[in-house]
Amino acid sequence: MLAEDPEYAGRRAAHEARASLGGLRPSFGVLLASASFLGSAKTLVTAVAEQIGPLPLIGCVAEAVVGGAREVESAPAVSLWLAAELGPVETFAMEYVRTSSGGVLAGYRFGPDQPGVHLMICDPFTFPADDLLDHLNNHVAGTVVLGGMASGGLRLRQSRLFLDGKVLSRGAVGVHLPGAEIRTLVSQGCRPVGDPYTVTGAQGSVITELGGRPPLTRLRELAAALPDRDRELLARGVHVGMVINEYQAERRQGDFLIRGVVGADQESGAISVGGDVAVGQTLQFQVRDADSADEDLRRTLEHEVAALGGRQAAGALLFTCNGRGSRLFGEPDHDAGLLVRMLGEIPVAGFFCAGELGPVGGRSYLHGFTASIALFPEAPPAPPQPPQPPQPPSS
Prior knowledge:
Blueprint: H1 6-20, E1 28-34, H2 41-52, E2 57-62, E3 65-67, E4 70-72, E5 78-83, E6 90-99, E7 102-106, E8 117-122, H3 129-139, E9 144-149, E10 161-163, E11 166-168, E12 172-177, E13 183-187, E14 190-192, E15 197-203, E16 206-210, H4 215-225, H5 228-236, E17 239-243, E18 256-264, E19 271-273, E20 282-288, H6 290-308, E21 313-321, H7 325-329, H8 334-343, E22 348-353, E23 356-360, E24 363-367, E25 371-377
Parallel strand pairs: 1-2, 8-9, 21-22
Antiparallel strand pairs: 1-5, 2-10, 3-4, 3-22, 6-7, 6-12, 8-12, 9-23, 10-11, 13-25, 14-20, 15-16, 15-20, 16-19, 17-18, 17-20, 18-19, 21-25, 23-24
Helix pairs in contact: 1-2, 6-8
């Protein structure tokens, strides 16, 4: 809903969200508010709590807010998403605590073989989400994390995170839903160009050799060989895709973990990317445009519709990059609108993120320029009951 007064916006959003559940009692909520509520976040959360009562809830103030098929980018907006009958719900907060030897991620313990999905919203200034995901991937295999980095106070380097009835300004908030069926979708929106190369020299996030030659040399050769349109896209921003499954014979759009090229050394020809790279990995340069992003999201949703096998979606949460929206597509509502068109008029909420969390190839990563979706399918129909034998007449 659109409104600027935090008390009115909170009450109205709560009323509309409760009505969408019919007579069911909500068991979990996600509250998102546009950047104009940065200074009045506590008033907003209090207004929602007064209407709904105590409720496990996470959320944040964001650059733009998703509600239904709309992406509100330039007006005050509040989106409240409520769910019922999800099973156990455990909300939590985490914080990065600096120590003499580095730092510790404290506040919540991820257990081994923990079922279900963790939804998380993190402050980009005080919480190293990529460090958490690296730890989970290496030490708590199978943990699924989906969500995004708060974006409502990027210029001021401030965030407002919502946890139950509280407002936090640092760390991360999350929820563990071990009993809920949640389908996790990640659409990365880039497409590969040129040939794949094996990384033959790397140190941390710096690539010194691709296929035995400097990466900048490979990039210049690629640019010279591309058609004009792709050369223009490459000039706007270079990305690399690291192959997720090295044993996959044919690689297509969506089979890569995308990272931006963030620096280059003209003298050595090395490039720096937004994540660590290992020698032996296969890498391919990528370009990003509206057509590629639309195609990838559309294909992701088509695949999900087929996987549901006739079952309907009950609701969805959308964590989409703040580099998408009208900045990429030239008009608002692309990701949310496509989701609703392909999955039906379901309750959808979300926000524009400063980085998206989501699983790819069995491991959870911090992404950029992606759309990460938590899809909640309707419960499967109950199996038919066998016919009961006739009862003898009573005497």
